[in-house]
Structures are given as structure tokens and as C-alpha cells.
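Let's see one such:

===
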Amino acid sequence: MNLSPAVDAEKWRNDHADKPIVEFIHVSFASGGHTVLDDISFKINRGETKILLGPSGSGKSVLLKLTDGLLTPDDGTVRVFGKDLASLQQAELFALRQNVGIVFQDGALFDSLSVRDNVAYQLIENKIPQQEIESRVLDVLRFVDLEDKINAFPPELSGGMQRRVAVARAIIGKPDLLLYDSPTGGLDPVTSETIMELVIKQRDVRGSSSLLITERLQDAFLCPTHRFDQGSGKLIRLPDGQEDKNTTFLVLNNGKFLFDGSTLDLVHSNDRYIRSFLDLPN
């Protein structure tokens, strides 16, 4: 996909294979006189899934909006694909976003559009040839196991199906970065696991980099402890003591990071807040 003038995706992959997809450098952000994020720094490397944990109101969604350039930091630098977002013109920022897929908590589908047109929306806006649109829509609907709902409308679908359509819409542009804003919020446990299976499938089959916000610990820990098996089309639990090395955690509280690291280090953290948040014995 050509993302000129902001970033040519293929050129970026070739020239910056070892560079972070996302980088926050001493970022601070305040709203209404309240400090939301206070001097935070972290990186998301190619192929890495970062799971962002923290209590409601801790600034998780603000961090995601900063990553997509919907908000601008008061201090510090946010780089995506090596580009300082604050330095980009509106057209450049729009072009960069073509290589970022977002799954919102409520799905954010258009009720008046069919599943096909919801999923194809970005491609239609970018005037992609019709034949290619049809092929790519079918491809992503197969990926989320909803090919038979292509002509349905969102109000005709269950909440879980709507969220799967939202995932299909997010990945149709073959983005190098996916942002998940509480994709299982409001769903029952069984349906939530179905959505998380898609997150893991996208990680393991297509190697996407992602930032995942969740307040559901069971969803968070499904990612590092399972892999998607293409042969069976199902999640497989990793043996005890093993974890997916490309899945790591961030813990945010009161505008600061308390943790940035592996699953094993997280569950063995001595931080009293983290142990309480994870419901671990002190």
C-alpha cells in the first residue's frame, strides 16, 4: 500500500525492520487541568503485541488516541513508523492512518450499511478497483468466519458478530499496526474468547504489531498463554511455563507506567498495586 507522502509502508519495512513501530518518548498529556499521562515512554516493536492494563480512567484510551494522532501530547514525542506525529501535516497524518487499523469498544459500525460496505468502507473511500474490493472483503470475512453475513446489516447481528465485523474492517487494509480499544467490552465470556481468538490469530498468522487495551484479565492472559493453530483453526494452550515471547504487558496507573515487560515478570512483580490489581497473593 502506498502511503506517500507520510510513509511508504514497503520502504519503511525494508529500511526500518529493526526499528519500533510505535515509540513514546517522555510523553505527558493533561485535560481539564488534570494530568492524564505523566512522562511516559515505551516501544512497540515489529510483530509485538503490547497489552495495556490499568483501572478505568487511568489514561488507556488517551494513550491510544495519541498513538493514532487524534490527540497531541503536551510534552514529549510520539513516533509511529518512525514519524513524529506532531510534525505531520493533516494530509500526511491521514495517509499514515491508512496503515493503522482500529477496533473500537462498541464496534462503531454504520447501521445503514451492509456488512460488506462497512468492511469495504476504507477501500471505497480510497477508490480501490471494485474487483479487488470484493476479493479483499471476502478474504477478511473468511478470516473472522462471517462470510455468510456479507449482505446482512449490523442490527441483524449479535454483539459478538458486530465486533468480528469491526475486526474485519480494521484488518482489510493489511495494516502494520492494530489498535484494539477494549474489543471485548460488554461481551459475555464465551463471545469475548471468540474475539480474543481473532486477536491471537491476527498476531500468529499475519504477524501484525498491536496495542491492546483491556480491563478483562482473562482476555489479557489468553494472548501470551495461547497460540493459533492453522491446522485445526483453534487456539492451543502453550505448555505450563511457556509464553508467547512477542506478547508483553504495560500497566498504567495514575498517569504513570508501573510495569513494562513479559508475562512471567508481571505475575512475579513485587509491586503491591500490581499484585492487588491482578488479584495475586501479597
User: Anything to note?
Assistant: Confidence is low (pLDDT under 50) at residues 1-7. Residues 108-174 form one domain. The longest strand covers residues 34-44. The two ends are 50 Å apart (CA to CA).
